[in-house]
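Objective 1b of the project was to move from sequence-level analysis to a structural picture of ligand recognition. The entry below was assembled by the postdoctoral researcher (A.K.) and checked by the PI before modelling. It contains the amino acid sequence of the target and the SMILES of the bound compound, coenzyme A.
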Amino acid sequence: MENCTLRPARESDLPQLLTLEETCFETDRLSRRSFLHWFKTTRRLFVVAERESELLGYGLVILYNGTRLARLYSIAVRTDIRRKGIGRALLVHLEELAAAKGRLAMRLEVNRINHPAIALYESSGYRIFGLYHDYYENHNDALRMQKRIRFPAAGFANTPVPWYRQTTQFTCGAAAMMMAMAGLDRTLKLTQDMELDIWRGATTIFMTSGHGGSHPLGLALEAHRRGFHVEVFMNRRDVLFVEGVRTAHKKEIMAVVEDQFRRKAADAGIPVHYEDVTVRLIETWLKQGLAVLVLVSTYRMNGDKTPHWVTVTAIDDQCLYVHDSDAEDDQGELDCRDIPIARADFAKMSVYGSRRLRVAVVLGNPS
Ligand SMILES: CC(C)(COP(=O)(O)OP(=O)(O)OC[C@H]1O[C@@H](n2cnc3c(N)ncnc32)[C@H](O)[C@@H]1OP(=O)(O)O)[C@@H](O)C(=O)NCCC(=O)NCCS
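Corresponding predicted holo structure:
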């Protein structure tokens, strides 16, 4: 990078910031008033690049209350010193600062015809996830882009857990179980054959309006059958997921299946603990080298209240990390592995339905 230093912005930078704004942007410039506002508030990260008292560029990130997101509000580099790495250095620095403040992802909007900025963001790992029509003063559209900025801290993470993409809408439980097993047994080959086989053994037959999903005891039986030590933790003793189906017939079938699972689990000697699943417990299990899958509600991920199994892969002082097997068509492994969930948010996510079900399946290597 061009020789310069990065430091927090201060009010004495205002004249040079206004000049930068004037020369770098044709529309939607930040005004003097706006800059003064951003100096005063603490809910932001405001950094400048400087060389010999000359401002070469700046970046401003907003930290909204009540979300785990940071938003890149503005970034600019002096016109005569572009393509020398200053823009990227500002961006990287802001991402690091935001991650240190507990933010999990950085979002931004960029004019869809601003090719230099889009190139910077794309080459820095940002992905387009939406569009705002008629967003700028000149009526241009804005692309919405996002990048994950929080990853498991070295030293806290367990050994990497392989990721697997589920091949049907209803086999997340089987896929989560396969990832957990593969984290313990590196020789395990994760195949669709295994996925469907586990689902057939673990299915509740019906769930919400579609096929059955995986029952925790069914998953535990499948792991047991494959030679793993397995225990189940759940906070309810009644028929699981039954409140999600409408007809009496479906409810009856699910009750029979529940009964089968409980009998089979008892026969197999699988310990079932009727207690809450907490972050503390999960941390203890991971530190013992155990593999953990938990049920979450997708409500906080995509607005749907669907029960969904994920595999916990790591934990650190701020976040739990999970592998999610349910990748959208345009998503790859990197989007779906080690997804951070802030510790404080986990309790709200790892609960399903009006009966507030919390459940975890915990696996260990055979003793
Ligand atoms: C966007 C901006 C901040 C980039 O600053 P910069 O210091 O020139 O960026 P860098 O030198 O760090 O470039 C990093 C990468 O971005 C991409 N990039 C930057 N400018 C580019 C251009 N004109 N054409 C193609 N790619 C470009 C390249 O991938 C580049 O890496 P490379 O030089 O190794 O190929 C700068 O162009 C700018 O101030 N633009 C006007 C303000 C603006 O539009 N801000 C963004 C608002 S959303």
